[in-house]
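2024-03-11 09:14:02 INFO worker-7 job=invfold-0412 stage=load source=structure_tokens
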């Protein structure tokens, strides 16, 4: 998704699945803890329904609506963590697995960590 979009501008937009079926309305946007980039949207799936989390990458903002490249049924079955609270790394991992998305492995440890600059190893 475009990373230059203000996440506040997503709230209230209609959301559609990959077939063009309306899913609901964007209720909340969750930012990545490390980067501050919008990562998840909570979609209100009906007047009395719960919110379902959808990944903003690879979703797209098309003609003012959020297009999510997954079927409505899969979105409806997403793990329910409640809204208004922080998503833990474990919860995010569950969501990534639910949607069949690969996540990048953590970067390798910095081999230079703890060394003093300019010092040669003996």
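2024-03-11 09:14:09 INFO worker-7 stage=emit residues=122
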């Amino acid at each position: 998704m475009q990373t230059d979009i203000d996440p506040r501008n997503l709230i209230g937009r209609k959301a559609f699945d990959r077939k063009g079926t309306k899913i609901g309305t964007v209720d909340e946007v969750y930012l990545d803890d490390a980067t501050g980039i919008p990562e998840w949207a909570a979609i209100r799936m009906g007047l009395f329904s719960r919110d379902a989390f959808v990944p903003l990458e690879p979703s797209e903002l098309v003609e003012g609506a959020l297009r999510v490249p997954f079927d409505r049924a899969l979105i409806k079955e997403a793990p329910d963590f409640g809204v208004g609270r922080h998503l833990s790394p474990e919860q995010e991992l569950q969501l990534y697995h639910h949607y069949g998305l690969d996540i990048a492995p953590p970067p390798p440890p910095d081999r230079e960590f703890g060394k003093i600059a300019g010092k040669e190893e003996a």
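2024-03-11 09:14:09 INFO worker-7 stage=report msg="The longest helix spans residues 89-98."
2024-03-11 09:14:10 INFO worker-7 job finished
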